Amino acid sequence: MCGIIGYIGHQEAQNILLDGLHRLEYRGYDSAGIVVMHEGELALRKKAGRVPELSQLVAERPVTGTLGIGHTRWATHGEVNDANSHPHFGGEGEVCLVHNGVIENYTSLRDALQEKGYEFKTETDSEAVAHLLAYEYREQLGKNGSVADATSCLNALQATLKQLKGTYGLVVLFRDVPNTMFVARVGSPLVIGIGNKEHFVASDAGPLLGHTDEVVYLSDNELAVITADDLKIVHRDTGAIDPKVQIIEQSDGNADLGDYEHYMLKEIYEQPRAVENALRGRFNDDEATAVFGGLNMTAQQLRRIDRIVLTACGTSWHAGLVGEYLLEEFARVPTEVEYASELRYRNPPMSENTMIFAITQSGETADTLAAMRECKRKGHPTLAICNVVGSTIAREADGGIYLHAGPEIGVASTKAFTSQVTVLTLLALFFGRMRHLSYPAGKRIIRGLQSIPELMEQTLKCHEMVKYVAEKYSEKNNFLYLGRLYNFPVALEGALKLKEISYIHAEGYPAAEMKHGPLALVDKNTPSVFVVPKCGIYPKVISNLEEVKARKGPVIAIACHGDEKIAELADDVIYVPDVEEYLQPLITSIPLQLLSYHIALLRNCNVDRPRNLAKSVTVE
Ligand code: F6R
Predict the structure, then answer these.
(1) Is the separation of the CB atoms in 518 and 512 below 8 Å?
(2) What is the rounded distance in angstroms from the CA atom of residue 481 to the CA atom of residue 383?
(3) Distance between CA atoms of 532 and 559, rounded to whole angstroms?
(4) Which fold has domain 460-612?
(5) Centre of ligand 1 from the C-alpha of residue 339, in Å
(6) What are the pLDDT digits (tens) for 183-210?
(7) Quick check: 597 and 498 in contact, CB under 8 A?
(8) For residues 23-57, b (16+ Cβ closer than 10 Å) or e, as one string?
(9) 315 in ligand 1 pocket by Cβ < 6 Å?
(10) What is the CA 237 to chain-centroid distance, rounded?
């Protein structure tokens, strides 16, 4: 949520900043801006709209200079307009910054600064930080005989940070100190790239690829003072610390669109490979179990676990619900999936041997991070199921499992969902084999999982039928998504996908719950998408479907190849391969992803960048 970039070195900053913002745009696309230090002045270009519009503006009015900062915004405080776009200036232009996060006490700071004569030009919380910094900077200059140097700037920054409540990733420039960039973080991710006589700062490692593979992840309460050839890191409480340099992989997936029109479609089609990657090296065939390198717990410790809490948001929560069903079925460990935004403030009883898994694609979701920290603070083993290597959650967890799905750029999560479900199936196998699950049952699960990539390829062949269905129903304004057991989370996920990218109201329900209320919504203009592959309670789901048909509700069924009966009942059927029940979410979610994609296209919606949303939700 909001992307930040900074550059200091010997190259023209403008292009590096714009390219970085382009790669960070999935984090927010309400507005974008850059400031480049040019002949002792801070030259600003900013604009409401997407990064290409900023690039156009910069092409018309280029800025030269080798030090600069940039920002792509997801609005939290203040509407989307040019003025509220970052960077923001403080004082009379002597300070300039970009900010990701939320300053909770900004109104009291703003009131106090206005009393001191500071004039606010925007509605943002970030401008309060800029003015406060200018005020503290002037205070430092007063103490320091007006010597504008990096020490005065650092002192001013530290004095400012002490007064902030909330979260921030900040990159700051001071007009009078033209060769230094200042960085600080609490709660919002920042990574520093180390080049050859140059440094980069970004919200994630994406913009650094191609420039450098040496990075330092800034932790909470750390500040950095960066020049072209020097990097100093200071902890707020303990003073200077040695930067911990890590090497990032340059070929961690492919973030280009290739021949696809949209990232979402590309990522839907990448699912067979993503699942293969999630499975790679994670089977122990001889023992019919799964293997994980990063749980960081002994078999004895794992054996003592008597409860598992999965915590996540959005799509990752839906994957967690599949995980709950799997872990209880195969491992018989009481499991619960908790919304991270609730768990962080709730205080549910947790036994001493409760284990926590935070499930997150980005590894930066603020609520998931806070819930994880709360559980960690209480002393529970807290692990992450995460896609983005080096993300905050991945780094702070006691251990974890990476998805290896490659970059997911489309705001609507697709391949991360199926990769998370794959990893959770492996986890259920692993815990199951430590407990009640027999050797043959373990073998069967392994064989089932190994068959999934090929079955996903076959599933993708439903694409033409999905297009036809999308055309038939794209003008409807309400949809119901219904499924039972393992397909109930799939129904929730299908409804979320439709809502977020096509702005159509959609509800996911357990099919049998319809008669307890939602059936009242059914009429000839409200299609119901029934996820009804072959399963132990297939006849029961069919009864639920007939209840909808009896009320003249159009029915779209997701059913298994060879199910002829369904064709007589449903208005339209999208066929998918038959798999064992516990593997069905990996298959049945695919037509629902494609359906939302095509309906959104037909309604002229921006599939990869839906309105009001951003990929990485780093604010509460
Ligand atoms: C929906 C979607 C969101 C995310 C949620 C959690 O398509 O992408 O609901 O799943 O914001 O994000 P992560 O998994 O990054 O923690």
Answers:
(1) no
(2) 32
(3) 5
(4) Rossmann fold (3.40.50)
(5) 12
(6) 999 989 999 999 999 999 999 998 998 9
(7) no
(8) bbbbbbbbbbbbbbbbeeebbbbbbbbbbeebbeb
(9) yes
(10) 30
Q: Which atom of ligand 1 is nearest to the CA of 317?
A: 10
Strand order in the sheet with 181-186: 88-90, 95-100, 168-174, 181-186, 222-227, 230-235, 239-241
Q: What is the mean pLDDT of residues 29-46?
A: 94
How far is residue 469's CA from residue 558's CA, in Å, rounded to a whole number? 11
User: Using one digit for the tens of pLDDT, what is the confidence trace for 369-408?
Assistant: 999 999 999 999 999 999 998 889 999 999 999 999 999 9
- What phi-psi label fits residue 323: left (phi over 0), alpha (psi between -120 and 50 degrees) or beta? alpha
At the topology level, CATH places domain 2-248 in Glutamine Phosphoribosylpyrophosphate, subunit 1, domain 1 (3.60.20)
Neighbouring residues of 15: CB distance < 8 A, sequence distance ≥ 6: none
Q: Measured between alpha carbons, how far is residue 233 from residues 175, 217, 532, 561 in Å?
A: 21, 11, 56, 59
- Ligand 1 pocket member 313 (CB < 6 A): yes
Q: 3-state DSSP call for residue 427?
A: helix
Beta carbons within 8 Å of 115's beta carbon, 6+ residues apart: none
The tokens 């992989």 sit on which residue? Answer: 249
Contact 385, 358 (CB under 8 A): yes
CA 500–ligand 1 middle distance (angstroms): 11
**Predicted confidence band of residue 251 (pLDDT cuts 50, 70, 90):** low
**Ligand 1 touching residue 188 (CB < 6 A):** no
Termini Cα distance of the chain: 10
Cα-to-chain-centroid distance, residue 256: 18
CB 208 within 8 A of CB 192: no
Buried b (16+ CB within 10 A) or exposed e, 486-510: bbbbbbbbbbbbbbbbbebebbbbb
Q: Which of 300, 310, 360 is nearest to 333 (CA)?
A: 310
The CA distance from 24 to 15, in Å, is 14
Could you list the active site residues?
Answer: 2, 615
Angstrom distance (rounded) from CA 410 to CA 257: 10
Residue 264, H or E segment = helix 263-269
Indicate if the pLDDT at residue 174 is higher than 90: yes
- CATH class, domain 257-437, is alpha beta
Q: Which amino acid is at 294?
A: G
Domain with CATH 3.60.20.10 in the chain: 2-248
Confirm or reject: Cβ of 368 under 6 Å from ligand 1.
yes
CA distance 576 to 316: 23
| CB of 340 sitting under 6 A from ligand 1 | no
Contact between 304 and 278 (Cβ < 8 Å)? no
Is residue 607 within 8 Å of 412, Cβ to Cβ? Answer: yes
Is the beta carbon of 316 within 6 A of some atom in ligand 1? yes
Distance 489 CA to ligand 1 centre (A): 15
CA of 400 to the centre of ligand 1 (A): 18
Report the C-alpha gap between 13 and 37 in whole angstroms. 9
Kindly report the pTM of this predicted structure: 0.88
Is residue 87 within 8 A of residue 97, CB to CB? The reply is: yes
What are the residue ranges of CATH 3.40.50.10490 in the chain? 257-437, 460-612
Which SS3 state, helix, strand or coil, does residue 537 take?
coil
Atom of ligand 1 nearest to the CA of 411: 8
Structural contact between residues 64 and 31, judged by C-beta atoms closer than 8 angstroms:
no
